[in-house]
Amino acid sequence: MGKMGLINIGFLGFMFMSSLILCKAQVPSTSLEYNFVLEESYFQRHCTNKSMLTVNRSFPGPEIRVHKGDTVKVHVQNNGDYGVTIHWHGVKQPRNPWSDGPEAVTQCLIQSGSNFTQEIIFSDEEGTLWWHAHSDWTRATVHGAIAILPDDDTYPFSTQPDGEETLVLASWYDEDVMTVYDQAANYTEPDVSDAFTINGLIGNYTSSCSNDGVYTTDFPLGPNGTLSNGTRVIMLNLSEVVEIVFQGTDDGAEDHPMHVHGHSFYLLGSGAGTNTTVYYNETTDSDSLNLADPPLLNTVSVPKYGWAVIRFVANNPGVWFIHCHLERHVTWGMATALIVGNGTTVETSMLASPKMPTC
Ligand SMILES: *[C@@H]1O[C@H](CO)[C@@H](O)[C@H](O)[C@H]1NC(C)=O
Ligand SMILES: *[C@@H]1O[C@H](CO)[C@@H](O)[C@H](O)[C@H]1NC(C)=O
Ligand SMILES: *[C@@H]1O[C@H](CO)[C@@H](O)[C@H](O)[C@H]1NC(C)=O
Ligand SMILES: *[C@@H]1O[C@H](CO)[C@@H](O)[C@H](O)[C@H]1NC(C)=O
Ligand SMILES: *[C@@H]1O[C@H](CO)[C@@H](O)[C@H](O)[C@H]1NC(C)=O
Ligand SMILES: *[C@@H]1O[C@H](CO)[C@@H](O)[C@H](O)[C@H]1NC(C)=O
Ligand SMILES: *[C@@H]1O[C@H](CO)[C@@H](O)[C@H](O)[C@H]1NC(C)=O
Ligand SMILES: *[C@@H]1O[C@H](CO)[C@@H](O)[C@H](O)[C@H]1NC(C)=O
Ligand SMILES: *[C@@H]1O[C@H](CO)[C@@H](O)[C@H](O)[C@H]1NC(C)=O
Ligand SMILES: *[C@@H]1O[C@H](CO)[C@@H](O)[C@H](O)[C@H]1NC(C)=O
Ligand SMILES: CC(=O)N[C@H]1CO[C@H](CO)[C@@H](O)[C@@H]1O
Prior knowledge:
- Mean pLDDT is 83; it is low at 1-29 and 214-228.
- This protein has 2 domains: 9-198, Immunoglobulin-like (Sandwich), CATH 2.60.40.420; 215-348, Sandwich (Immunoglobulin-like), CATH 2.60.40.
- The protein has helices spanning 3-9, 177-185, 282-285, 327-331, and strands at residues 11-16, 33-45, 48-55, 64-67, 71-78, 86-89, 115-121, 127-133, 143-149, 166-172, 195-198, 234-236, 241-247, 256-260, 265-271, 296-297, 299-302, 307-313, 318-324, 335-340.
- By secondary structure, the chain is mostly beta strands.
- It is globular.
- It is 7% helix and 34% strand.
- It has a 5-stranded mixed beta sheet with strand order 12-20-19-14-17. Strands 3-2-5-7 form a 4-stranded mixed beta sheet, with no helix packed on it.
């Protein structure tokens, strides 16, 4: 993905400089309940002082630190100016779409002045994921890391680390991200961000408020406003094996990071064109798919002018969003949902619905 693509994502990615565990005694204990207080707070970066929505006045927000298989309660108290939802990106949440978070797919907004407790059910995930708002463009400022330690607290490599740091890479918009959202919602190409941040900081701006280090806006024009209604959801029975071919058919401006909720999937293969679209050909391309050791992912970058093939077992009953992770593309409707039916037993059906926010 080119750097301009990254800018517009509004965020992306964590890294452990070195990691986990030295010995049990040094492992911070896992807190199984977190209080997230959403509120507007002033931040000054890049010569701009602005109010923005954050969790606990923190940008990035608090880190969630758990062990594999934990269940965590997050009490969200929305003292901000508008409604939000929160998604636990890459956490499969078996049988529990109720706490997955995408606005208008699994829940209504947590309205300003109200609370919502989400139960985050970890299963086989290990490593680093992230949580982020999943409504409008609030994700740009409402996000944080999730660190999932192995259940036996062992570091997976023979060389032990000297220390551990979580790095959260994000974007900084000088303007209010809701203004940027409005631009996208009007089907115009929204402004790109003004800078990148690492753990909320832009870099060394002590000398002057110059433009040093800021990327320029050479972002190509996106879709020009062809609207359509009628995205259909995909209905599946539990345990069906699903293969999805993502086929890029646009003008190839950028790769599309396609994210699937509720499941991890195997990336079997992908193909990219340079100037014209390369279509997946079932006859000729299926032989080249990697069925031996494909990577297991929750988001795949579909190459521009190209395709990607994924496969997974629909083993999680519920409603699960599938969408491009570029904010403006979600705004423009590049999304659908997977509805996986209940199994035949209680254990293979969705959990009972908790009390959900009302619309
Ligand atoms: C967030 O702030 C609230 C109240 O200010 C506090 O009780 C809570 O512990 C904080 N949460 C985290 C995760 O730091
Ligand atoms: C940012 O603006 C707010 C509101 O005017 C003010 O209270 C705060 O001191 C300002 N911050 C900085 C760093 O100037
Ligand atoms: C939200 O939770 C906070 C902290 O527990 C509580 O003080 C407040 O009354 C709750 N608000 C509502 C609307 O329930
Ligand atoms: C979006 O369009 C509406 C209606 O045309 C207009 O009132 C509004 O100013 C536009 N917003 C932006 C950010 O361009
Ligand atoms: C920040 O920039 C100033 C001026 O260029 C320089 O003197 C200072 O050492 C830099 N600080 C850091 C932490 O890099
Ligand atoms: C969209 O773009 C195409 C190709 O650039 C152009 O032919 C068409 O007129 C544009 N449509 C609108 C509504 O601007
Ligand atoms: C989409 O559906 C809404 C509600 O039925 C309607 O108002 C709107 O005109 C439709 N848009 C298009 C592009 O068909
Ligand atoms: C799901 O199972 C039902 C009942 O066995 C069957 O009729 C239906 O065709 C199945 N749906 C799909 C998408 O396979
Ligand atoms: C796929 O490739 C085969 C073999 O080259 C070709 O005959 C066929 O037309 C291609 N299919 C499509 C849809 O392009
Ligand atoms: C699936 O199971 C849950 C929990 O038993 C139940 O509430 C829900 O109505 C079921 N859904 C369907 C479509 O049968
Ligand atoms: C016709 C055309 O646009 N060709 C371009 C295809 O892409 C290559 C590599 O990016 C360019 O060098 C060509 O000019």
